[in-house]
Amino acid sequence: MSASDILVTMTAPSSSPAPAGSPLSPSQRALADAVIDVERHVASTGWDAPTRVFALVSTQAALEAEPELATVLPPTTVEAALADPTHLTSVEQDDLPETDSLEDLLASIVWPETVTGAAVVVERSILPPSAEADIPDDPAAALAFLAEHPDRQDVRMAVGVLRDGASWCALRTRANDSDEDVATGLNLVPGLIAALRSTFL
């Protein structure tokens, strides 16, 4: 972790996934479902994990291009995709380049036209806004300050965007590590959303 990885502020999250009757477009709903699924998939592997990046592709288009995928995907996924053209499938990106920061990693990614959106899952330690002024300038001292601060929280952030700019976020804290306590919303981590959107520019 570098000093630039210390996230001090976030917008206020909701306490649960958006209800089915919420005013989300079909594509936004598909993105929200994909981000929640990706976060739960990563959560199943435990904490202290590296950054993970996923391409989000149209499940219908993928099935049309490669019909054999129907034998690989869960039957419920295939059924859902056939009924919903906005349905998304996540494809984890292996062999990510080694970079000095998450910003540099995202800046190195260029998606092909077949990719509808993207998601990134990253763990960070955060402090309340009131602690920002006390963070030392020296990177090593800043990390020590963060590690020892009594109000530190370890957070897993899953953020997804579509080519049209739609976004969705899911946040889980180590202190409340259950699917029921994952906070979700459109714009919970604005800086990470903007960085992920830039991969489509």
Summarize the entry for a quick read:
The chain is of the alpha+beta class. It has helices at 26-43, 59-65, 75-83, 102-107, 139-148, 190-197, and strands at 52-58, 88-92, 117-126, 153-162, 167-173, 183-185.
Explain this structure.
The chain has one domain. It has six helices and six strands; from the N terminus they run H-E-H-H-E-H-E-H-E-E-E-H. It has helices at 26-43, 59-65, 75-83, 102-107, 139-148, 190-197; strands spanning 52-58, 88-92, 117-126, 153-162, 167-173, 183-185. The chain has a six-stranded antiparallel beta sheet with strand order 2-1-3-4-5-6. The chain starts with 25 loop residues before the first helix and ends with a helix. Residues 1-19 have low confidence and may be disordered.
| Uncertain residue segments | 1-19
Q: Outline, from the CA principal axes?
A: elongated
Structural class: alpha+beta
Q: How confident is the prediction overall: mean pLDDT?
A: 86
Fraction of residues in helix: 25-40%
Number of strands: 6
Largest sheet: 6 strands, antiparallel
Number of domains: 1
Assembly classification: single chain
Q: Helix and strand layout, with pairings?
A:
Elements (H helix, E strand, L loop, with lengths): L25 H18 L8 E7 H7 L9 H9 L4 E5 L9 H6 L9 E10 L12 H10 L4 E10 L4 E7 L9 E3 L4 H8 L4
Antiparallel strand pairs: 1-2, 1-3, 3-4, 4-5, 5-6
Question: Keywords for this structure?
Answer:
single chain, 201 residues, alpha+beta, 6-stranded antiparallel β-sheet, 6 strands, elongated, disordered N terminus
